UniProtKB/TrEMBL annotation, chains A, B, C, D:
Protein species of origin: Labeo rohita
Cofactor needs: pyridoxal 5'-phosphate
Taxonomic classification: Eukaryota, Metazoa, Chordata, Craniata, Vertebrata
Residues where substrate binds: R97, S98, Q105, R297
Name of protein: O-phosphoseryl-tRNA(Sec) selenium transferase
Subunit structure: Homotetramer formed by a catalytic dimer and a non-catalytic dimer serving as a binding platform that orients tRNASec for catalysis. Each tetramer binds the CCA ends of two tRNAs which point to the active sites of the catalytic dimer.
Function according to Swiss-Prot or TrEMBL: Converts O-phosphoseryl-tRNA(Sec) to selenocysteinyl-tRNA(Sec) required for selenoprotein biosynthesis.
Length: 469, 469, 469, 469
């Protein structure tokens, strides 16, 4: 309420109480002021009450909520369903304009503010999680893959003649598709095995660069190569924000070499619903160019989700989640290792992957490949989600390219294995339950060494989104 | 509650009352059954209570809401903020999979159902609003422009050699950009003036086809040409669903010629928040191919909005909105015509545009071009949104192409004019207020014939999303 | 947001748009200003957006929402469940204080304002619905019956010697109990039959007054008697607010005679959840005395509901509902009369009851009393709620007093009948469905004249809340 | 969804995923089953998702939500405002019937279940918090004071001749008023001072019993006296549920003596909004009699709040809150004691009060009584809520009775003091902030020993709800 209304209230209720109410209101306003002024993720999280107050204030500034508005355009932010209006806090106009997803809308000052502030707060988080020299970023309401496509389409305008993308293999369909959709031809760089771990084959990359002279992807050393050969470099940082190691590599890559843009998923890093990504980079002009490539306004829903989430958590809350994740990674490694040992298997040694872990499944393989697949089905049925088995010898064709040993990121990984990740938001209970159920499944499978009837469940090749072990 | 729980309830509350409660529950279940069975928009709208019951049921089927789930993947549908979880009805997993935006997710049976049902209900609406022979469609959480881009990218894979899109001019930035972003070169076909109205220059289109042999866009006669020359034909049906005339033209075009896909905006046709589109077509394989081009999962938010809205309205409610819109179009034409006459102007004669209308602004022009621009500012300040002025001689460069007479869809329209649309959801009050305020502005401008101080407001060239007058 | 924050916003988003947002905010503030200033129900209803803005503003003023508050009392408005906090808009402190339900709370300026404003708005509605000279009122979170008890308890303090309440019979349990609970002895004044209609036996009332010299209840003429004999007069106006006739009678009664307080139900008159009442009167001191009788703070929930509802409807919306109710009363009378005729029955002639109607059930009675009861069960099963059958000869003991012919308000009404009411919120569909189903039931009962198997359903004596036919 | 709908879903989405969804649904149903079967507070709290599912299921059973219902009664649970409907989960019919607040409503099986289950769950909590032999209880939507009044009114019917209530003094207005409102004459038993602590004067109680022979109030020894003299005994257990000591005393009192009913506040014990109480006792008949005294239906809102809260917390969550409270009581005692020492004061020795603490304010008093009052104002202004100062010599008249030394529960307590409580929900931060601010205030007051200007704030006599130190 404004001062006039507070004054009127003093006639109804003792003025000392009203004045205290006014002072309390200023407390909320003060938090909003700091946010607007600094554009940073607040240190301490806000209460739901402050957040909703703020969102309501933003909504009031959009023309669809003007009390005296009359609309005679074809896009007036009208909403037919009250349920829909409410769940969007009456912010209906989306973000951006025809020309630019980051642009301000005349009809929607509130939604425009939301967009600006969200991008600014997310930039702050990118900085404090490790990429200190990032210069700009924006939230885009598209999956990581489609966001990568947008980056590639932008590069196409810069380099009309380019045809290839050098792509160190990672068995995730949408990553591969993002290049194909953009009309490029991916050149797959097969990984090399070092111990249990797969690493990018740098020699092969350089050989291909010399052979093709084209644009490509990946980390640190790659960035140096890219700089040397003047090749654009886009990093798929999918769920890397939650790992200080990944963020550090990007920061380093940009310092010593060249990274044009790095793209990360909102849902995987911020515990929000699927459907948004952050496109970030070190050269403001290039990122702006990408934002101008998106033709039309876009959904504000992912921006709203990530803003609410970051205001709720505050920087401290987010850092705490990251610290817990890291700690539980250690716990998961320990538990998985112990379990593996009990079953005559071992935890694969993958020190460069700070999030995912894998244990070998050699014994199951000796029974039959079906047993490995069946383990996946059993875990699914027992509500262990995300623990994926990777059998040997799976072949999969994606957009015309056939991958051998699909899901293992290499043609012939030495053994089948099971993957588990310590991602942001994981709890100790998740790990305890997973280990317990996994243990039971393995016992049960080793008993019926000659697997008779396979349980229902999705066949292994149905499983997606694999990570480098 | 299941039967067991109803039985237990009978011990607490008289069984005849509980039995009636059970019967009532069946009423809701019955509505859901019909929806699942027929996949059509229900004739009568559902109550909020049935809708929320249904959405809660869907959410319960997603793994993030399993009571005994343990998640060790990197994408488990965890949500950090209660506000966010609630506003999405705890449906967190989005829609689609890496490979296909229409695919089913093992972890999220509820979200997958939501996606399937939404697409099915929307298909039904496409049919009953006029495109009876449409075979398939899907909702995509991207703006119309970006959705067109996705169509073009798909066509690129079918025709790797294609370079041009024939584009009968329409001055809307995102439409133009959708082609550029996809990496094509738009070939602008300038419109021809017939009376007040602009029409596609069919001779020029055919000439260009012969000159270039390429892919292109637009309606009925175009479809025949496309069929004749085997050229893919994508229709930007932005807000055309609300007009039976537009829908009829698409139906006819597909019958007598060729239409590969037609794309429409969700927010403009269904009164939902900005950010979604429908990609539809007559050849299931081609549409499926497009849906497989989207790399990665996508936001379920636009699907959720449109489903809630259509269940709330029912087919009858939606048809009623369309009928009201049509009736108010007549009313707006009448009022605008009368106003124009009072001010020595006239309603432009544009019988082929069933949604937008325009009145000439010749007198303002005689004062100065600034006066025309100022009218736009004055309307903005007076909360008339969507009524756009189109001055003469505006030049605008979009993605490198310079348009003369921008916003008027032609290089040199004979007079400046003001645009107003009768779009879905418009009310009689909107029209009354708009006419009243417009009248005042025109009077005030004609008084101060020599415009002194211009009011604040966005300059005319800031205005976007123009329609063919 | 305050001005400082608007200024900061202008650095992020074009200042002309932000200024328009600020102006829009003032629109909402202006509505709130008028409400605070005038304390009246606004003519036009508010949007949900304004209402929620207002409620959030009130909540911010309560100490449980102070950002810097520390609480070391035993009642700090803490809330354990987020669901609970939200559904009360974080207004947790209730209304009133130990001493007075209308008093202001130091810890809760917002809740105190809510209380004051609600009472003020409700007073305005009492005035414009007919009781123009009402001087004060307050909403109390108790049923009508318990609210009557509170009035009686207050009177007990004024008249320590009083023992009786003269009570013109009306067969509603809670009305009767309200006197017994307060420790008084109700003296039942049996009604007299005039045509089909029951009227208060005024001679008997006067006789009893002379015999007992005590306090009592009812309308107009009664008020004169009360004034003449200096007897406190409490009117149970349960759902009378929705009838201009009832309101007029109270206005008249107070003008020519004496009415100490009149009590009405919130849910029955304002379409809000059960649980609140309005205690109103013409002598501010007496009403204040009642409000001071409530020991302790009370739930703000009914006040919140009625305030939201009245702000949503506005005075015009509420009057429209009343007008529709009245019109549908005529429609119901017509339909019921026609139906009665078709079944050889008749609509009872009860011109003094502006809300309820009754049709005779003589033919059913000739079959058996069970048939009358069965009709009630059949209607219940067929989801006709509120249409109650009144068989002959039901005896019921309430708080020790046995009523013959219970539910008919008299010992021996000439015929059994069926009751239906046109209450606020009723729709034409309700009436159509009711008549249709009733018709079917009557036909089916007359076929199986010798009723074999009775259907399940609550026996007639279970039915409550009868009205004078 | 029922089985048929799950089957239909399998045609849209892979049946193994749907079957897992069905299994997940059974998980929620299972929790509900246990609740219905056992009627106990679940050990572990439920997720919001289960709670809302359950409440929606209940709502579906109420006739106002029947899809085919037609209503022609005067109370049909219609709701004018969507905001209101939603915030009550569409449970509109309240609880109870005319005859009995615990009765089942034919029109509202869902609300009736809610009522039964809430009372049953609350009874379970009463048991496990210490009153193991309690036999029945019910939630009533009235403040503790009004609930006590209802108990007294019930007793009046049992003992028509009774006039007095023996009342060991406790300076809380609503407690005193609850007796006066019920029409009784409170006989104040002044407390006796033992060390710093006030204790009930048992000799005086017995003397009064002999003098008057009447009904009265208080703990353990009192219960024995009551049993001996056959005097009804009502315990005001306001916020005693949170203390195992208080609950133990009631359990003991009922075992060795007589307790007819004990009444506790919902908001103070369960962290829900103000406005409800629990009336409980050991003789089912007497408690039932009280529930039948409430004339009319009542608000379900407090029942809904407490049910949501207890399902959210679970028994373990609630016990955890109690344990934390107890621990923080120790912490508060320590901190307050240290602070007192620093300022030359002392923590009063009140070992029998397990919730509230007090520190002397002798030094302030030597300055002036105004200084003591001013401290209260200063704390209020600094957002320390609930820390109340008790000056010497305050006189207050409540319902005609004048109390000397009001707020100190005795005519002449030896020193002024400051009160602070460790009530349920208190946090360590609350204590830290309170001590810090209190320290500052005391320092500032001792500096300006000659207090010049008093700050604004509520005068001390405005403060209410005092507790025995």
């Amino acid at each position: 309420m404004n001062n006039e209304n507070f004054n009127l209230s003093e006639k109804l209720v003792s003025s000392s109480y009203v004045r205290q109410g006014l002072q309390a209101r200023r407390g909320h306003e003060q938090l909003i002021r700091v946010l607007l002024q600094q554009g940073k993720c607040p240190e301490e999280g806000w209460s739901e009450s402050t957040i909703e107050l703020f969102l309501n204030e933003l909504a009031v500034m959009d023309s669809n909520n003007f009390l005296g508005n009359c609309g005679v355009g074809e896009r007036e932010g009208r909403v037919a369903s009250g349920l829909v209006a409410r769940r969007h806090y009456r912010l209906i106009h989306g973000i951006g304009r025809s020309g630019d997803i980051a642009a301000v809308q005349p009809k929607a000052a509130g939604s425009s503010l939301l967009n600006k502030i969200t991008n600014s707060v997310v930039l702050d988080v990118l900085k404090f999680t490790g990429v200190r020299s990032v210069s700009t970023c924006f939230v885009v309401p598209m999956a990581t893959g489609m966001s990568l496509t947008l980056c590639f389409l932008t590069l196409r305008h810069r380099r009309p003649g380019a045809r290839y993308i050098l792509w160190p293999r990672i068995d995730q369909k949408s990553c591969f598709k993002s290049m194909v959709t953009a009309g490029f031809e991916p050149v797959v760089i097969e990984n090399v095995l070092e111990g249990d771990e797969l690493r990018t084959n740098m020699e092969e990359v350089e050989r291909k660069i010399e052979e093709l002279g084209a644009e490509n992807i990946l980390l640190e050393e790659l960035a140096v190569l890219c700089a040397k050969h003047d090749i654009p470099h886009i990093v798929n940082n999918a769920y890397g924000m939650q790992s200080s190691k990944c963020m550090h590599l990007i920061q380093q890559g940009a310092r010593v070499g060249r990274i044009d843009a790095f793209v990360q998923s909102l849902d995987k890093n911020f515990m929000v619903p699927v459907g948004g990504a952050i496109i970030a980079g070190f050269d403001e002009n290039f990122i702006k160019e990408i934002s101008k490539m998106y033709p039309g306004r876009a959904s504000a829903s992912p921006s709203l989700d990530v803003l609410i989430t970051l205001l709720t958590l505050g920087a401290n809350g987010y850092k705490k989640l990251l610290a817990e994740r890291k700690e539980l990674y250690g716990h998961l490694a320990q538990e998985l290792s112990a379990l593996a040992e009990r079953h005559g298997e071992r935890l694969l040694h993958t020190p460069h992957n700070p999030i995912s872990l894998a244990m070998s499944l050699n014994h199951l393989q000796t029974h039959s490949t079906a047993a490995v697949t069946q383990l996946g089905s059993m875990l699914f049925t027992r509500q262990v989600s995300g623990a994926r088995v990777v059998p040997l010898g799976v072949e999969q064709t994606v957009s015309g390219h056939t991958f051998r040993g699909f899901m293992s990121h290499t043609d012939a990984y030495p053994c089948p294995y099971l993957n588990a990740a310590s991602a942001i938001g994981i709890t100790k209970d998740d790990i305890t339950l997973c280990i317990k159920r996994l243990d039971k499944c393995l016992k049960s499978l080793s008993k019926e060494a000659s697997a008779e009837k396979s349980e229902s469940g999705p066949p292994a090749e149905d499983v997606e989104d694999q990570t480098v072990p």
